[in-house]
Amino acid sequence: MTAPASTGPRTLRLGSATSLQFRPRTLAVGVAIGVVTLVVAAASLMLGKNGLTAGELWGVLTGSAELSRATEFSLERLSGPRLFVALGAGAALGISGSLFQTVTRNPLGSPEIVGLTAGAGGGAAAAGVLWPGIVPLPVGAVLGGAVAVTLVWFSTGRGFSAPGRLIIAGIAVSAICSALTGLALTKAGEQQAEGLAFYLSGTLASRAWGHVAQVWVVLLVVLPFVLAIARNLNLVQLGDELADSLGGRSNATRSAAICAAVLLAGAAVAVCGPVSFVALVAPQVAMRLTRAATPGIIAPALVGALLLTLADMTVQNLPQGVNLPVGIVTAGIGSIYLGYLLATEMRRGTL
């Protein structure tokens, strides 16, 4: 195992057949974000009325904890599934946003802007209310997201290459999806409509281990595929002609990346609703921290997991009587960032 000294990317060789290229700064930033995420995750389990003490948390991690029944119930039925859904959904949204921004070469190219999350939310609402028992809710979310992305792709006339058209088409498709969601709400009963409205705001309340399995299975299946096409994704950033000349197969790579992005965002929306702006913000934060030319895959996943876990810890510890969906917090932060991003793109003349 050798790691030759270099000021740029380094190559880690595992025997004669396997090698891994990495940038030291990206690796260091990834480790730091991972550590911060673990600290926030531990804090989310320790805060609140039935939160764990430091000794109980250590006991849970080592398998030697003796918890009260109330604390055990809270950990197994409430805070535990909620935390793992936040980590998995945040990572899925971070990777999905990175894939969109990479293939479109546009910082605005995220699932929210192209109407994917609105489409996934509409698909989930339709599956749950209009066609209950016919289409499973996770499948409805993925199908809704795929239809929304397809509509934007064709309605722009230039795929995802024109930022201005992308935003307008995304707004139009999101409006169509919102109309479908509104129709589902009118068909739902009072109690079902209340639950659906909370879900469509983006919520992690009342998550179960089944939701954890849904998002983590998709994440663990799709992530190796995304890492396998990472080299070609980097080539696509150079332009289609140059990417094709270097073996990047730009069209096939772009199609594969969008399919993976739809699956990841659909899985996240299926388990926690259309949580806003995590997919838009996470790749940009990762790119600035790593000082890389492209967002990459792992760093946006870690930033996405950190953002959603931190936002959920915030809503869980608001004063008594304030019960906000986590999507309200991410939308508030993300809308400020979107305004900054739009102003930056307008100054550059790309809008």
UniProtKB/TrEMBL annotation:
CDD domains: TM_ABC_iron-siderophores_like (cd06550). GO terms for molecular function: transmembrane transporter activity. Coiled coil: none annotated. InterPro entries: ABC_BtuC-like (IPR037294), ABC_transptr_permease_BtuC (IPR000522). Keywords: Cell membrane, Membrane, Transmembrane, Transmembrane helix, Transport. Its main location: membrane. The chain crosses the membrane at residues 27-47, 83-101, 113-131, 137-154, 166-188, 208-230, 256-280, 292-310, 322-343. Signal peptide: none annotated. Belongs to the binding-protein-dependent transport system permease family. FecCD subfamily. This is Iron complex transport system permease protein. It comes from Ornithinicoccus hortensis.
